[in-house]
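hiii so um. not sure if this is the right channel but i have a protein structure encoded as tokens and i wanna go backwards to a sequence. like what aa goes where. can anyone help
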């Protein structure tokens, strides 16, 4: 996951408007147990103009991270 995360970060650094790349990055960060960073990226996706399903995915991950933080 480390290499993929680095590549996604570089892509987003060049073009922060790529919300779906950001969503993929957030999911990779989550899988890599970088929960705070993942949550930050999911929040950015949720704030963007994306499809309803992308909003739902981002919010579901955020809720899961919140549950993990309080467990």
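sure thing!! here u go:
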């Amino acid at each position: 996951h480390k290499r993929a995360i680095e590549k996604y970060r570089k892509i987003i650094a060049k073009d922060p408007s790529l919300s779906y790349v950001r969503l993929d990055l957030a999911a990779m960060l989550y899988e890599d147990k970088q929960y705070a960073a993942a949550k930050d990226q999911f929040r950015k996706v949720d704030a963007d103009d994306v499809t309803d399903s992308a909003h739902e995915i981002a919010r579901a991950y955020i809720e899961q991270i919140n549950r993990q933080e309080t467990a």
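oh and The first helix runs from residue 2 to 14.
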